[in-house]
Amino acid sequence: MALALGSTAPDFTLLDAHKQPVTLSSFRGQTVILAFFPAAFSGVCTAELCSFQNAMQRLNGMAAQVLAVSADLPFANAAFAAANNLTFPLLSDWNLSTINSYDVALPNFAGIEGLTRSVRATFVIDAEGVIRHVDVTPNPGVEPNYDDIYAAAESI
């Protein structure tokens, strides 16, 4: 089960698509929409991240930063970001440390024995690093409830 509302978001440092470290705590003072997605270039993940990109003006207006996390390597995330014109960081959690710390691991992804990825989960984290909203889809083939995510970010 994913982390609970009101808990402190575990800090992490992951490499972005350019192999540069990105640390969650460096975004203290602003709202963070932390989106875990199972796999770059999959249909629903593409739809999800493009939806966040399409909402960027709205998110910028509320000073919200999107960070997207998957177990994909930085090279795959770079190609995925370029193919979809994504301007927010795509972070690589190839060793599953952050996926596990947020308790969003999905074992045997796509029916592949031993392949662990993340569930589709979104956390809205306030300026002090506290989780204020959690959206975990019932299965990875379902997009998150964007209206609830944006409403949670706007209410902070």
Structure characterization notes:
With 156 residues, the protein is an alpha/beta fold. The chain has a single domain (13-155), classed as Glutaredoxin. Helix content is 28%, strand content 24%. The protein has 5 helices and 9 strands. The chain has helices at 43-54, 56-61, 74-84, 97-101, 146-155, and strands at 13-15, 21-23, 31-36, 64-70, 90-92, 105-106, 117-118, 121-125, 131-136. The strands form 3 sheets. Strands 5-4-3-8-9 form a 5-stranded mixed beta sheet. A two-stranded antiparallel sheet has the order 1-2. The protein is globular. The mean pLDDT is 95.
Secondary structure: elements and pairs:
Elements: E1 13-15, E2 21-23, E3 31-36, H1 43-54, H2 56-61, E4 64-70, H3 74-84, E5 90-92, H4 97-101, E6 105-106, E7 117-118, E8 121-125, E9 131-136, H5 146-155
Parallel strand pairs: 3-4, 4-5
Antiparallel strand pairs: 1-2, 3-8, 6-7, 8-9
Distance between the termini: 24 Å
Structural class: alpha/beta
As residue ranges, the low-confidence spans are: none
* The CATH topology: Glutaredoxin
What do the pLDDT scores average to?
A: 95
Strand fraction: 15-25%
In short:
This protein has helices at 43-54, 56-61, 74-84, 97-101, 146-155, and strands spanning 13-15, 21-23, 31-36, 64-70, 90-92, 105-106, 117-118, 121-125, 131-136. With 156 residues, the chain is α/β, with parallel strands linked by helices.
